[in-house]
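Incident review: delayed structure delivery

Summary: a single-chain prediction request sat in the queue longer than the usual turnaround. Root cause was a stuck worker, restarted by the on-call engineer. No data loss occurred. The affected request and its eventual output are reproduced below so the record is complete for anyone auditing the incident later.

Affected input:
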Amino acid sequence: MNKIITIGRQFGSGGREVGEKLAEKLGFAFYDKNLIAIAAEKSGMSCDALNDADEKAANPWLYAAMSQTGQTSFGVNISANDTLFALQSRIIKDIAKSENAVIVGRCSDYILKDEDIELLNVYIYAPREARVKRVMERMNVTEQQAFQLMKRNDKQRKCYYDFYTDRKWSAHENYHMTLNSEKFGIDGTVDIIANSIKL
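Output delivered after worker restart:
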């Protein structure tokens, strides 16, 4: 039975870095933004359009042209967001059937909840000050800019998760484990999750 670790994360918490290092430590495949490229390849759709829709809830008033014909396998006038969610859901389920993997975001904990796999859902968070500092260093922005980026991205992720699931983003009952990446550090957080796999 394949093992899948899903990682939900606050913006600036280092969740992606945790996922990447965890996959390397365990010898698992790693999926994050590369799911968009896979979706584009499988569908023949524009990578740019899918990137714009990534981890954002559908806007019923705005629709993207997903192909030159204006049609997709999901029908005409389907939003880019809905199309990407459907594509990524199929891809994530296929991944779970074929290999051990770490998957970051994309409602993967919800998508895989009924699959016959060993599933570990993890949520990474950190205090605001630590996240602002990380965003400032990573993106070379001011403290105020970092704070605004953090607020905007967390709001987008919450709206996306709440829109496509029957759950609330960051609610502890959605996850098997929630970890403060500032308390344990990135490598310590990786070690805790890796050790939990043995249990």
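Verification: Confidence is low (pLDDT under 50) at residues 60-76.
Action items: add queue-age alerting; document worker restart procedure.
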